[in-house]
Here is the input.
Amino acid sequence: MIELDFEKTGGLIPAIAQDAATGDVLMMAYINSDSWAKSLETGEVHYWSRSRQELWHKGGTSGNVQKIKAIYVDCDDDTVLFKVEQVGGAACHTGMRSCFFRKVEGDKLVSEGEPLFDPKEVYGK
Here is the structure.
């Protein structure tokens, strides 16, 4: 298995998900050695949930999984870029296509786009 430098950053490294077809940045989360291994094993991205302190299969609940098309590792072996096929179109738990849907305009954040699903229906909250 490809060795990443998890020790340098306390066990977690940033992982960026980018749409392989459009180049859109979908999200940024963290991976640990377990989620890295699981992603390589399954071909779908797995992250480490810092809030739940557990392995997180992206789309495991919503069905909006990220199928890995290519993986790039930075020059320091401490950041990963997953180029993915975003099943269902939405990467964000808010139902938006990308987690980066809020644009800074002056002193405000302005949302762009519309949700692709209702999080209350999908997650029950």
Remarks:
- Residues 7-91 form a domain with the Ubiquitin-like (UB roll) fold (CATH 3.10.20.810).
- The chain has a mean pLDDT of 95.
